[in-house]
Automatic annotation (TrEMBL):
GO terms for cellular component: cytosol. This is 5'-nucleotidase. Keywords: Hydrolase. Its EC number is 3.1.3.5. CDD domains: HAD_5NT. Pfam families: HAD_2. It comes from the Bacteria. InterPro entries: HAD-like_hydrolase_sf, HAD-like_sf, HAD-SF_hydro_IA, HAD_2, HAD_sf, PGP-like_dom2. One of its GO terms (molecular function) is 5'-nucleotidase activity. It is an enzyme of class 3 (hydrolase).
Amino acid sequence: MKFNPIFFDLDGTITDSAQGIIRAVQYALESFNISASKESLIPFIGPPLRDSFAQFFPGDPEKIEQVVAKYREYYGEQGLFEARLYDGVADLLRQLAENGHILALATSKPESFAVRIIEHFDLTHYFTCIAGAQLKGTRTDKPAVLRYACETLGITPSEDCLMVGDRKYDVLGAHEVGMPCAAVLYGYGSEEELKKAGADQICRDVKALRKLLTGE
């Protein structure tokens, strides 16, 4: 096995979750009488939520917490289910698990939401570990999530591990903890963004990712 364990991002890597996230952001901003187009909110997919909302409320942590709470009000009830699996991803996870790979989810999304999404799509049995952020605002960046996931698995990050993600945060986070990152172009990050971040591999689609991970 070339890479083991393999850490997967969620949004933009396993699920196309833009609709639910963007609707939740719009719902939250509208409670503060702020309107924003869908296109302008694409950057919310990937980084920690509080960091993204800070651009609307710079230097106002109290309002940031308020808008995050409004976001979760929508997302926790409806938005997290407004997503779809990317074609071929479930089969790839099944194949990797059957081939003996240890799979972990590593997302900046709150862990409780990530667990519900993975359960919703019936993928729980493929993952040894589901690691995410804490609702109270700790362990939100990708390096912290990856370190937590590695601790849970009882391993030390190394070149034998692999992070799979779609944004620069996945690449930079993986490199910070000492593992390579394969970036996918079917998610929300551009090829320019991912190359600039230093992605070790770039996969244009799930088929290319399968070839990298399984050799098939």
